[in-house]
Amino acid sequence: MSGQGQRLVVVPTVTMLGVVKARLIGATRGHALLKKKSDALTVQFRAILKKIVMTKESMGEVMRASSFALTEAKYAAGDNIRHVVLESVKTASVRVRSRQENIAGVKLPKFEHYTDSSAADSRADLTGLARGGQQVQACRGAYVKAIEVLVELASLQTSFLTLDEAIKTTNRRVNALENVVKPRLENTITYIKGELDELEREDFFRLKKIQGYKKREIERKELEARLAAEISSNRFAMPLGSAGRNILVAGGEKDEDVIF
């Protein structure tokens, strides 16, 4: 789905233009922040991936060493080593606790191993066995190291999956803002500006027409007034002029009779 050629259904007013511009500014800032968040998560994702590869490579060596230490302990202590260990251990001394780490707003689960001192003190010391006590302690140390590596690997893989999902979600939001939301808002702003310009041109044309109509009305009224004044002046001037000419003509004739 793309926002090219699409716009919001709005009323083209100046107020709506300001609202859409504010939304475009917010979308631009949100896109920039989400882009930075995606970059930060990607950097952390690659770092965790590198640690996972290194941890898996070391895990093979640790598991091989722990298996070899168990074989040595069985060879030195005999077949009854399992029963002796199970009877002497009451509670687990190595435990795992979880916490959360915030990376660019994403909470990543972290697992940490720790040793319970009370359980370790209450545990019977296996070095007092009749034979193989040293090998049993070496085997225990090898498996504790293996547990530490497994806990670290579990923490890394859990963070890896969480970051992968967060990066996918963030990238979807970035793409939506970049390809859908921002183009729609920009098209809406262009549409509103075009409609406002068209309304402004219509108002200007309407004003020009009104001014032309008023000017023609004023000229028509002036012409009518001028014609009315000329007609009225001619109406009173023409009869007086004829009478005057008749009187002058009659008077001239009388004078001629008197002279001759």
Automatic annotation (TrEMBL):
Keyword Transport appears in the UniProt entry: yes
InterPro entries membership: V_ATPase_D
Gene3D superfamilies, per the entry: 1.10.287.3240
UniProt keyword Ligase present: no
Keyword terms of this UniProt record: Ion transport, Transport
Gene Ontology CC terms: proton-transporting V-type ATPase complex; vacuolar membrane
GO MF terms held by the record: proton-transporting ATPase activity, rotational mechanism
Superkingdom of the source species: Eukaryota
NCBIfam families associated with the record: V_ATPase_subD
PANTHER family associated with the record: V-TYPE ATP SYNTHASE SUBUNIT D (PTHR11671)
Family from the record: Belongs to the V-ATPase D subunit family.
Name used for this protein in its record: V-type ATP synthase subunit D
Native source species: Zostera marina
